[in-house]
Design a protein that fits this description.
alpha/beta, Rossmann fold, 6 domains, seven-stranded parallel β-sheet, 35 helices, globular, helicase, nucleotide-binding, 3'-5' DNA helicase activity, nucleic acid binding
Length: 1074
């Protein structure tokens, strides 16, 4: 494939501008047909009219602005010429020489800075790394053994690879913006090939924008002040600083970061933001949550002096909040307890204090503390150790982490001597319960089991956890211990008591939701990125990532400790890279040294180091995924910035709660993306604060999950009919059908799952192989960067990909699927790569057919094949495709189960007649269905991709017209089957949600899904309405639906063909009622 090569603009090219008719602000068209010539003449008349209007609007300007306009028009002409030649980056020295040739006078740096001040969002005038101008030099060529990656190597030492050592160049260019139906993050476009007429129009439009901006400045200048002096004063902030020019930085004087304890108040900081160049009316909603005073309570039975002294010495606790005292009392009365209160409300004290009580009564007492992450378990172990070391009489008590990182040698000592273990459900399932004979003494003395972050356990994973808890209770009872107390803590959730009863299988639960913890004032802002050009919305909005990182830089410079939450790992790294680039460009290496990214995939050592640096206060900023959403103690945070609406309200409130964790005033900011869901909350901010959090669900009716744990339980101790009390009434039928029954009516696991059935049951879904990502920049000292799952490696570590780690770019040199390694070379590039791929979700075999209530149509359940093919990748800079590279890879294939509903032919014909897009209708209807299904997080659908559905050319890949839903491959949950069993009721609920929703184009209440991996970009509420009416057999009023004006689209949907069924399948009739 022919590669598009991008090079630094050469001054000789710019000197040739006059040869192409580029003079002043005009571009002459070459010879053409008479029709085109007439069009050009007409345009020329219009152009003269516009020029006259411009002259009239500038006549009253001060001479200084007229002179500045002349300079602007000159480099506008030069840069427009560069655009027509597809040059993607231009340096100031080469632009300057051509501008000076036009002006016949020197181009001064401060004049360009003044123009940048007038058009701050449209002009880029800054230093960038010289390597950022390269595009194709390092691309591997087909058939070439050596792809030449050494040209991007940063040197043979870490110092040479640092940001301080890299050479920077000054760039002057207009910021490119793309517009269209798709979002900024998805709408990747090739650089425009501009005709001479288009170049002329571009120049004129930019000139008009300058005139408008100057008029705005003059009109906004207060009476008695000189607009020229106002401009010159503001322009000082826009003079670019070369990060490598240390002497320049020194001339500006020391730049110190205020101590976080001495920072300004959040109220003052928000006012500073509004007065800064950063602000363009982005704050569309502001809520102030006032500070709350602590509400204290007394425990009914006084604690020992030793325990109170330990709390005072290690935690500075002298009194309990009301929720703490109530929980401690309930536990001492033998009740099971769930505490659902705000983040950082001191929930861990609730189960730590009773454990100290139990240990004072008997050193033989034991406890299990269970956490969703190893980092959280490590934190809590250290906290309990400090308590014990301060508690007279308990200093010899041993506690330990027992997880996958615990060595085999250490495990024996922990079983024999530890009184409290900190673990997770994976270890309980795979290691502790299967070896129950080694834990019998521990189980016999077990007093308390505490499960932190209970809201984390929901859906398929929560269903597995529920049966693991039941297996634990059963083994404790077998050794004579029926008095174990179960305690759980959670962020604020709907119906916490029901969720605890479902998870633990216990009934006597004390629910505590009255939060007595104090909290500082919190300001919550919704921040909508402004238009790139307020007078021309067609240019779209500023990048949400750019907005989030600019805001974060602003706050960190003022001593505000921030965390920036990103939804996925890739966005996290790109945001860190943007911070690295911008802070380097500003010469703020002092801040950059105190910012880190944190996400899954990093090595355990790296994660612990980042956590320690954050807790100690060494870090000023963290860019993280939801890996830090849970309660890992990273010290005081002043501000949380959320880049895009997270995956649900519960997640948003959990993230926002990470700021102000120690009663200080705090700031939470939701930076809205351009996607439909984010913009819905921009328009309806009350729902973020007033809407109830959805209830959590576990599926205790899943026979597949139950059977898996019955094999495990039978291995731990043979099952009998009495165990129905733990596993429910379905147990006997499953045991008779799937387990092995002996002559004494005991059930044993099926021999095919021996020697350890738990190894065949993955509670988190399929366990993928991992690839080692290795930095081989220095061949003599390779470094393991991280380990990533196979499906991530497939999309992130193909040869030629740009892989980002801690905001630094690496090029993938080679990948070995045999050794499962990817070798990377550190580099400096300012593009990213995106796979060119497609995924097919195909129904291949029908195993069940179900009637849809009141409809002649049917729903089908069976085998679904998933296939993903990566056939190349794009190089992308600022939303623009720089290059397309082809690749040949093997397809990634897997099999799962699910169900589908074919769109009736009559509905497709109606779509065609009314010019409704069937892809939009199908996608929206799928979301509407899932929005009415409580376990939607564990069900997938074939989300429609905007870049494919809105292509202008005909697509060679067409998909069948059907709604399709499936289980994630390897989850073993069969949640899709549960949805299929209730398909009629869910379809009607989806239809009624759309029909009753007052929104115009779709919202979170009807067709917009927070789980859509394609950001809900392909969707039509009207189309979904029509489709669901057709599927349900309801009448469609054709006269009420006009032909759509914007009805031109590429046909990507064809009528679905019947999927072959296994022999003997009969239609399951709809039965009304429970």
């Amino acid at each position: 494939m022919a590669k598009r090569k991008t090079t630094q603009v050469d001054s000789d090219d710019l000197d040739n501008a006059s040869d192409c008719g580029v003079t002043g602000s005009n571009v002459e068209a070459g010879p053409s047909s008479s029709k085109k010539q007439r069009g050009t003449a007409t345009n020329a008349k219009k152009g003269k009219g516009k020029k006259k209007a411009l002259n009239q609007s500038t006549d009253e300007w001060p001479e200084y602005f007229k002179s500045l306009f002349k300079i602007y028009k000159s480099f506008n002409t030069v840069l427009a010429f560069c655009s027509s030649r597809k040059h993607l980056a231009v340096t100031f020295p080469t632009v300057r020489s051509s501008v000076e040739a036009i002006l016949k006078q020197p181009l001064q740096l401060n004049k360009v800075a003044e123009i940048k001040t007038i058009l701050p969002d449209l002009l880029r005038f800054a230093y960038i790394l010289q390597d950022d101008l390269r595009v194709n030099d390092a691309s591997p060529e087909k058939g070439r053994a050596d792809p030449g990656f050494e040209r991007f190597m940063q040197g043979n030492s870490d110092e040479q690879g640092s940001a301080r050592e890299n050479e920077h160049v000054l760039v002057l260019d207009f910021v490119s913006h793309t517009a269209g139906k798709t979002s900024d993050s998805q709408a990747f476009q090739l650089p425009p090939a501009l005709t001479p007429a288009q170049v002329t129009k571009l120049i004129e439009r930019r000139n008009e924008r300058f005139v408008e901006a100057v008029n705005e400045l003059i009109n906004a200048t207060p009476s008695g002040e000189d607009p020229v002096q106002v401009l010159q004063a503001a322009a000082r902030d826009h003079v670019p600083i070369n990060p490598t020019a240390v002497d320049v930085l020194d001339e500006q004087g020391p730049q110190t970061i205020p101590n976080s304890n001495e920072r300004a108040s959040i109220e003052e900081l928000i006012e500073d933001i509004k007065l800064s160049n950063l602000y363009r009316d982005q704050i569309v909603d502001r809520r102030i949550f006032p500070a709350k005073e602590a509400r204290l309570g007394q425990v009914s039975q006084p604690l020992s002096d030793a325990i109170m002294d330990a709390l005072r010495q290690s935690r500075k606790i002298t009194e309990f909040y009301i929720h703490q005292s109530r929980a401690i009392d309930a536990i001492r009365q033998g009740k099971h307890v769930i505490v659902s209160t705000s983040t950082a409300s001191g929930k861990s004290v609730i189960y730590q204090v009773p454990v100290l009580n139990f240990l004072e009564e008997s050193h033989e007492s034991t406890a299990i503390f269970i956490y969703p992450t190893k980092a959280l378990a490590q934190d809590q172990r250290i906290a309990l150790e400090q308590l014990l070391w301060s508690c007279e009489g308990l200093t010899d008590i041993q506690v330990a982490n027992y997880d996958g990182d615990t060595s085999k040698d250490a495990r024996l000592g922990i079983r024999e001597s530890a009184s409290v273990i900190f673990t997770n459900f994976d270890m309980l399932h795979m290691s502790i319960l299967p070896h129950e004979e080694q834990w019998r003494k521990f189980f016999r003395n077990l007093k308390l089991v505490a499960v932190d972050e209970l809201h984390y356990y929901t859906g398929v994973f929560g269903s597995h956890v529920a049966y693991i808890i039941r297996r634990l209770r059963r083994l404790c009872a077998a050794v004579g211990n029926t008095k174990v107390t179960f305690v759980s803590c959670s962020a604020t959730i709907a119906n916490p008591g029901r969720h605890m009863r479902d998870i633990f299988g216990v009934e006597d639960v004390e629910v505590i939701t009255d939060d007595g913890a104090p909290s500082g004032r919190k300001d919550f802002l919704i921040w909508n990125p402004p238009f790139n050009d307020p007078l021309d919305p067609r240019n779209g909005r500023r990048s949400p990532m750019s907005e989030a990182t600019r805001l974060m830089r602003f706050l960190m410079k003022r001593g505000v400790r921030c965390i920036l939450f990103c939804k996925i790992r890739k966005i996290c790294e790109q945001a860190m890279k943007m911070l690295r680039t911008d802070l380097t460009g500003e010469g703020r290496i002092d801040i950059l040294d105190r910012v880190k990214a944190y996400r899954g995939g990093y090595s355990r050592e790296d994660r612990r180091k980042i956590e320690q640096d954050a807790f100690s206060g060494n870090l000023l900023g963290i860019v993280a995924t939801n890996a830090l959403e849970l309660g890992v103690d990273i010290g005081v945070l002043d501000a949380v910035i959320m880049l895009g609406y997270p995956f649900g309200l519960a997640s948003l409130r959990q993230q926002a709660g990470r700021a102000g964790r120690r009663s200080r005033d705090a700031l939470a900011v939701l930076v809205a993306e351009t996607f439909a869901l984010d913009q819905y909350y921009v328009q309806n901010p009350n729902e973020l604060h007033d809407r109830a959090i959805d209830e959590l669900f576990v599926d205790l009716d899943s026979k597949i999950i139950l059977e898996a744990h019955l094999h495990c339980a039978a291995f731990e101790m043979p099952l009998s009919a009495a165990d129905v009390s733990y596993f429910g009434p379905s147990m006997i039928d499953i045991c008779n059908a799937q387990l092995k029954k002996d002559e004494d009516n005991w059930y044993h696991p099926n021999p095919k799952f021996l020697p350890f059935p738990s190894q065949h049951v993955s509670i988190r879904g399929i366990q993928e192989e991992t690839y080692c990502v290795i930095d081989v920049t220095r061949m003599d000292r390779p470094k393991l960067l991280e380990e990533i799952e196979f499906h991530r490696a497939l999309f992130e570590t193909y040869e030629g990909a740009v892989f980002i780690h801690q905001g630094e770019s690496y090029l993938v040199n080679d990948v070995s699927h045999n050794s499962k390694t990817a070798n990377l070379i550190k580099t400096n590039v300012n593009w990213v790569t995106k796979p060119r791929e497609f995924s097919d979700v195909d129904a291949v075999q029908t195993r069940r057919i179900r009637e849809i209530k009141g409809s002649p149509h049917r729903a089908y359940y069976g085998q679904i094949d998933l296939k993903t093919i990566i056939f190349g990748y794009y190089k992308i800079r600022e939303g623009t495709i720089l290059d397309k590279v082809d690749m040949e890879t093997l397809p990634f294939e897997r099999t799962t189960t699910g169900f589908w509903i074919d769109v009736p032919r009559s509905v497709l014909e109606f779509f065609s007649a009314k010019r409704l897009n069937p892809a939009e209708a199908i996608h929206a209807a799928e979301h509407a269905f899932l929005n009415q299904f409580p376990l939607q997080a564990d069900v997938r659908t074939e989300c429609k991709v905007a870049i494919k559905e809105y292509k202008t050319e005909q697509s060679s890949r067409q998909r069948p017209a059907r709604l399709i839903f499936y289980d994630s491959a390897g989850t073993q949950g069969s949640i899709a089957a549960k949805a299929f069993d209730h398909v009629s009721d869910i379809l009607y609920a989806a239809f009624e949600a759309i029909e009753s929703c007052a929104c115009e184009d779709g919202c979170a209440k009807c067709i917009i899904s927070s789980y859509c991996k394609e950001n809900n970009e392909v969707a039509s509420k009207l189309g979904a309405q029509v489709l669901l009416r057709g599927v349900l057999g309801l009448p469609i009023d054709a006269d009420a639906i006009p032909e759509q004006e914007d009805g031109s689209f590429t046909v990507t949907i064809v009528e679905a063909q019947t999927v072959r069924a296994v022999e003997g399948v009969e239609v399951e009739l709809y039965i009304d009622g429970p």
